[in-house]
Specification:
Helices cover 31% and strands 23% of the residues. 38% of the residues are buried. It is built from six helices and eight strands.
């Protein structure tokens, strides 16, 4: 029993770059596993070695802001996509695009669940109404992430302002 070699390899590469990763075995399990996400190489190695063959890669998004949008979202086609242009973009291959940022100093935005616009979510720390604090990637999508969290651009103020507005002006804290 072991996670697919490509998934394990990407998990180790991302952990080396300070991304906190965990083996994603399914939704009920992920809530607990995201809190155990780590960039500690021996822990990551063992966790993925002991995982089933169909394991995918979970990336904890604490300290990150990931915008997830359906390709046909009006929000993206209305010009916002060009404003997201500085982000590290990854096509998940399922009709969804992701735009990756580092949260700025002192920022701790929460995840949103459709509160910015229809068909648009963000992942950061856990948020309201079941919005997870992680994202699941296949090995191919994970391979498109940079080698280090520090290589991601800082989230633009307009985006963090929208997330803050979705939470009534309150950032961070318990979800």
């Amino acid at each position: 029993m072991s996670a697919p070699a490509e998934t394990r390899s990407e998990a180790l590469r991302l952990a080396k770059g300070e991304f906190a990763v965990f083996p994603f075995l399914g939704r009920p399990d992920a809530v607990d596993r995201q809190h155990a996400a780590t960039s500690d190489r021996p822990v990551v190695e063992t966790a993925f070695d002991l995982s089933p063959d169909d394991t995918r890669l979970g990336v904890r998004t604490l300290g990150l802001i990931v915008v997830i949008a359906r390709r046909q979202s009006r929000w993206l086609t209305s010009g916002v996509r060009s404003a997201l242009g500085g982000a590290h973009a990854i096509d998940l291959g399922n009709g969804r695009l992701t735009f990756w940022y580092r949260a700025g100093d002192g920022q701790s935005p929460r995840s949103t669940n459709g509160y910015l616009a229809p068909d648009v979510d963000t992942r950061s720390m856990e948020g309201r109404y079941g919005a997870a604090g992680y994202i699941v990637l296949g090995a191919e999508a994970a391979s498109q992430l940079p080698g280090s969290v520090d290589e991601l651009p800082e989230a633009p103020a307009w985006l963090t302002g929208l997330i803050e507005k979705a939470f009534g002006g309150r950032q961070g804290g318990a979800a």
